[in-house]
Amino acid sequence: MTSSDRSQAVDVQQLKTYEVRTYGCQMNVHDSERLSGLLEGAGYVRAPKDADGDADVVVFNTCAVRENADNKLYGNLGRLAPMKTKRPGMQIAVGGCLAQKDRDTIVQRAPWVDVVFGTHNIGKLPVLLERARVQEEAQVEIAESLEAFPSTLPTRRESAYAAWVSISVGCNNTCTFCIVPALRGKEKDRRTGDILAEIEALVAEGVSEVTLLGQNVNAYGSDIGDREAFGKLLRACGKIEGLERVRFTSPHPRDFTDDVIAAMAETPNVMPQLHMPMQSGSDTVLKAMRRSYRQERFLGIIEKVRAAIPHAAISTDIIVGFPGETEEDFEQTMHAVREARFANAFTFQYSKRPGTPAATMEGQIPKEVVQARYERLVALQEEISWDENKKQVGRTLELMVAEGEGRKDGTTHRLSGRAPDNRLVHFTKPAAEVRPGDVVTVEITYAAPHHLLAEGDVLAVRRTRAGDAWEKRNAEPQQKQGVMLGLPSVGVPAPLPAATGGCAID
């Protein structure tokens, strides 16, 4: 073995790996990118995708929304316990909403956990890991208020061409089924200038699509007393050169004002897509949920959006079987779905969320009743989704080429991309090289309930700076670096769609 080979072997031995497991909503996905960025800034490298816990640091970014969220966490922690025994120096950290809620309970039930941190202090993870290593005891640190916006922390974005941008955190609503406000705190808005500066920096790196992110994204401005701040922010995004696509999630019907609809319609790079949680079509159930709108108001917003943006694809969240929901209430939801004609809907069977008022309400619905209603709703929405997708056949659309969205792309010799309205389209692979982030023009030839096909030749290919960024990232070998034993360093700035459910069930 040459001295160079020996040096390389030492380098590989010095590498310390990490794995981040994410549960829940888009906020958690965004936070996990920051956790990855913090760990890489501290000298760790990402473990292979099939590591399955075989890493020096395993981080669980948890969700507290589902009734059995804690069982899932402790089951996973239990599976790692023997692995940790066999791997000296391995560390396990638990963060996110469940950590914020359960705090000391986690270390009591799983004493092999090294670090517990909350939703407000994710930036402390490297320091807490180092402290746990030096002191040889678990570190539990839960901040009661936000220490730093997620977007101000270092990041390891999953996508070279698309990015999340956090514009607010927390929520001022009091929905009876949701524990998020208790865990993420009251709404706090970021300064508009900071948001736009981050987006401009992302575009300079090659990002061409951003998704503005907030627990209640269109309430942006309530912190500063400007009810039209969100519409103004959308318009400001329209002036950023090189930013091709702007999306946002998730808005609340209560705060969906006419100026936002106008901003969407009049700003070319704001995409014709809207995800707005309805939760129920029954006024009685909406009142019990403490949702501050009724069916007529919700459908009225959709009507206005479609009048201003005819090709808008509208999606939603719906909860089936909320306590006290009668058959008549459920039929009102079915009616609202027929009227709204959603492009797709994320449908959920109600599950108790510990710590929420709904968990102790009378009139909990039997599981078999909820299941039967859920199946009827899914069947109806499937039919509507297919009908709405069939209307796309014959249209010529520009797609942003996506990475990893088509599971069968390899065997079918297709690529996949997202239309402006965020519909997934599989298209015939052209002769010319096409990279994720590039834009292709295709004609839609076939519709399925959950995707579209463009089976003819690609009409045009546009190479983009986003494609260049993807190519550059994939051409660069992962830098090998050891983990220093002193306190880790910290440093700067967001990809796209990801988790559904969780806090996204607004």
TrEMBL record:
<feature type="domain" description="Radical SAM core">
    <location>
        <begin position="157"/>
        <end position="388"/>
    </location>
</feature>
<dbReference type="GO" id="GO:0051539">
    <property type="term" value="F:4 iron, 4 sulfur cluster binding"/>
</dbReference>
<feature type="binding site">
    <location>
        <position position="97"/>
    </location>
    <ligand>
        <name>[4Fe-4S] cluster 1</name>
    </ligand>
</feature>
<feature type="binding site">
    <location>
        <position position="25"/>
    </location>
    <ligand>
        <name>[4Fe-4S] cluster 1</name>
    </ligand>
</feature>
<protein>
    <recommendedName>
        <fullName>tRNA-2-methylthio-N(6)-dimethylallyladenosine synthase</fullName>
        <ecNumber>2.8.4.3</ecNumber>
    </recommendedName>
</protein>
<dbReference type="Pfam" id="PF00919">
    <property type="entry name" value="UPF0004"/>
</dbReference>
<keyword id="KW-0411">Iron-sulfur</keyword>
<feature type="domain" description="MTTase N-terminal">
    <location>
        <begin position="16"/>
        <end position="134"/>
    </location>
</feature>
<dbReference type="InterPro" id="IPR023404">
    <property type="entry name" value="rSAM_horseshoe"/>
</dbReference>
<dbReference type="InterPro" id="IPR002792">
    <property type="entry name" value="TRAM_dom"/>
</dbReference>
<dbReference type="InterPro" id="IPR007197">
    <property type="entry name" value="rSAM"/>
</dbReference>
<comment type="subunit">
    <text>Monomer.</text>
</comment>
<comment type="similarity">
    <text>Belongs to the methylthiotransferase family. MiaB subfamily.</text>
</comment>
<dbReference type="InterPro" id="IPR006463">
    <property type="entry name" value="MiaB_methiolase"/>
</dbReference>
<dbReference type="InterPro" id="IPR013848">
    <property type="entry name" value="Methylthiotransferase_N"/>
</dbReference>
<keyword id="KW-0479">Metal-binding</keyword>
<dbReference type="InterPro" id="IPR005839">
    <property type="entry name" value="Methylthiotransferase"/>
</dbReference>
<dbReference type="GO" id="GO:0035597">
    <property type="term" value="F:tRNA-2-methylthio-N(6)-dimethylallyladenosine(37) synthase activity"/>
</dbReference>
<feature type="binding site">
    <location>
        <position position="171"/>
    </location>
    <ligand>
        <name>[4Fe-4S] cluster 2</name>
    </ligand>
</feature>
<dbReference type="InterPro" id="IPR038135">
    <property type="entry name" value="Methylthiotransferase_N_sf"/>
</dbReference>
<dbReference type="Pfam" id="PF04055">
    <property type="entry name" value="Radical_SAM"/>
</dbReference>
<feature type="binding site">
    <location>
        <position position="178"/>
    </location>
    <ligand>
        <name>[4Fe-4S] cluster 2</name>
    </ligand>
</feature>
<comment type="function">
    <text>Catalyzes the methylthiolation of N6-(dimethylallyl)adenosine (i(6)A), leading to the formation of 2-methylthio-N6-(dimethylallyl)adenosine (ms(2)i(6)A) at position 37 in tRNAs that read codons beginning with uridine.</text>
</comment>
<feature type="domain" description="TRAM">
    <location>
        <begin position="390"/>
        <end position="458"/>
    </location>
</feature>
<dbReference type="InterPro" id="IPR058240">
    <property type="entry name" value="rSAM_sf"/>
</dbReference>
<keyword id="KW-0408">Iron</keyword>
<dbReference type="GO" id="GO:0005829">
    <property type="term" value="C:cytosol"/>
</dbReference>
<feature type="binding site">
    <location>
        <position position="63"/>
    </location>
    <ligand>
        <name>[4Fe-4S] cluster 1</name>
    </ligand>
</feature>
<keyword id="KW-0949">S-adenosyl-L-methionine</keyword>
<dbReference type="InterPro" id="IPR006638">
    <property type="entry name" value="Elp3/MiaA/NifB-like_rSAM"/>
</dbReference>
<keyword id="KW-0808">Transferase</keyword>
<feature type="binding site">
    <location>
        <position position="175"/>
    </location>
    <ligand>
        <name>[4Fe-4S] cluster 2</name>
    </ligand>
</feature>
<keyword id="KW-0819">tRNA processing</keyword>
<keyword id="KW-0963">Cytoplasm</keyword>
<dbReference type="InterPro" id="IPR020612">
    <property type="entry name" value="Methylthiotransferase_CS"/>
</dbReference>
<keyword id="KW-0004">4Fe-4S</keyword>
<dbReference type="GO" id="GO:0046872">
    <property type="term" value="F:metal ion binding"/>
</dbReference>
